[in-house]
Structure to design on (150 residues):
């Protein structure tokens, strides 16, 4: 369930754990579509037979594909109401900790770590972790910067 946060209440959420999203499955179709969009057709991603013999025993998602899931997962975790514009401002730190094999299920947890006033709104530094179901380590750990304008 999405936590709805009123723009005026954003400061109250700094440091609060926002919980977990539902699980999201990474399919070979999604990996292939991402490969087509980015022109990155490395065999470890798009050739299931060859990848089965590779270092991970199966095709793996591109790291940037996993990272790109941050926004839809984050939006399913929380949303800010009462804003005119939301902007993905960038990333301060990204680490690809574990490969994501095809068929893996992912979920996101996040915390609004910092909130800074900017002209017309707030900039939130969001500490997020994308976890792999059954994994001992996360797939991605990231601090993203989001701007919310009133």
């Amino acid at each position: 369930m999405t936590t709805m946060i009123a723009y005026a209440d954003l400061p109250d959420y700094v440091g609060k754990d926002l919980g977990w999203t539902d699980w999201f499955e990474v399919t070979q179709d999604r990996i292939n579509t991402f490969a087509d969009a980015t022109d990155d057709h490395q065999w470890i991603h798009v050739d299931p037979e060859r990848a089965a013999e590779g270092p991970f025993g199966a095709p793996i998602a591109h790291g940037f594909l996993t990272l790109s899931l941050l926004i839809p997962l984050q939006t399913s975790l929380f949303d800010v109401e009462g804003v005119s514009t939301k902007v993905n401002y960038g990333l301060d730190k990204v680490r690809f900790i574990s490969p994501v094999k095809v068929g893996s299920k992912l979920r996101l947890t996040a915390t609004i770590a910092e909130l800074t006033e900017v002209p017309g709104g707030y900039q939130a530094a969001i500490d997020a972790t994308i976890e792999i179901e059954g994994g001992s380590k996360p797939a991605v750990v990231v601090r993203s910067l989001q701007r919310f304008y009133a």
Remarks:
- The domain at 3-25+62-149 is CATH 3.10.129.10 (Thiol Ester Dehydrase; Chain A).
- The mean pLDDT is 97.
- The chain has one domain: 3-25+62-149.
- The beta strands are 3-6, 17-20, 24-25, 78-81, 85-96, 105-118, 121-132, 140-149.
